[in-house]
Specification:
Layout: H1 2-15, E1 26-34, H2 40-55, E2 60-61, E3 64-73, H3 77-89, E4 95-97, H4 102-112, E5 119-121, H5 129-132, E6 139-140, H6 146-150, H7 153-159, E7 165-171, H8 174-189, E8 193-200, H9 208-213, E9 220-224, H10 227-239, E10 245-248, H11 255-258, E11 272-275, H12 284-296, H13 308-326, H14 332-343, E12 346-349, E13 352-356, E14 362-373, E15 379-390, H15 398-404, H16 414-418
Parallel strand pairs: 1-3, 1-4, 4-5, 5-6, 7-8, 7-9, 9-10
Antiparallel strand pairs: 2-3, 11-14, 12-13, 13-14, 14-15
Length: 421
Amino acid sequence: MRKMLLGAVAAVAVSLPGAALAQSNTIKIGILVALEGAFATGGQDGVRNVELALKQVNNTIAGKKVETVVAPTDTKPDTTVRMARKLIEQDKVDIIIGPLSGSEGIAMRDFAKTIPDKVVINGISGALETTWVDPAPNFYRFNLDGSQWGYGLGSYVVKKKGWKKVATIAADYSFGYTNFMGFAVDYCKAGGDIVQRFWQPLGQSDFAGIIAQLPDNVDAIYLGLGGTDAINFLNQYQQAGEHTKLIGGTIMADQTVLTARGKAKDALKGTPTSGPFADDDTDPAWTSYVKLYQNGFPANQRLPSPSLFGLGYYVATLAAIKGLEEAGGDLSNGQAKFKAALNKMELASPVGKITLNENRQATGTVYVTEVVDGADGNMTNKMVAKTENVNQTLGMTPAQFKALGLPSRDVVDCAKLRAGG
């Protein structure tokens, strides 16, 4: 599949009439995306969605032809920076769309500062620090961060499910901490208690030790995992005969997991989760996008519906297209007109209006969903609640939010949060 995607992108670049023209008549976009590691399937969907968005404008923006170059990563920050440098120095791209994973985003924030005359639009990486701590003025994120995605889920499981005591398992890296933080803030405020926390390194497939230590006296287990890590856990969880109810982090019940082969995913039925969209959303903007995606690729070359990863890259590309059109394709003077257009942008997306704050970080809607069997025989996510206008500080003042500390294994402290400390 990876070879097919890379070949397709290369074919687009070669066949475009603008590819042989001078640089001033061509806009060159680098796609920085994980095509190896735990999130390779999501990365493939990211490439599909960049292609899909550009196809809607006939690969032409402001009268200029668009050429794309894919730079594959493996979610490791050093690889990401190396590939980004290749895009800039060797491929001579004008813009980078990416990366995909949390720690990659932090690395790209720092790399972006070394290329101030180029714009970087985040793909779907969700670590809080990327835009919260010393953000780069040329790095834009039109997706919510992981803590925003987690917000609303905690209060839902307390108030609607009555699950007031949980243990948690999450990926031991920046996004895992960030996504967990959003859930924990909301859960603790609603009166829930987190009795035990476990952390698993990204890509480490053996969960037996953690499963053996899971407490019995909890209402549910929060799982902040995704990709092949999620599938590996579910397989081992079922083999161990465990039946405790599950709560999913944002990427735990994504289409990349729900469409995986085997029965492991069946353990997710009924699992509540939260994130930037709901598969069954009836809003015309969403249903039109899903239809566009499904009609854009043969069924055996795509997922049943767009993944979170694909959606992120699609929205990022929409932002690039709109910003470039408003700038008239002018990328001179350090891309000043393009940056100005992005800074003031209100983007109409498949998941509603997206605006950016002073950190160039998105504010938008969070959907709470539950995993159910879909009419087409595939598992899907049914919307049960949503929260609009979720900002980067989760409704708190910047001072209150900063007082929580940066995402880590120990943040959030439920007792301290409820005490107002």
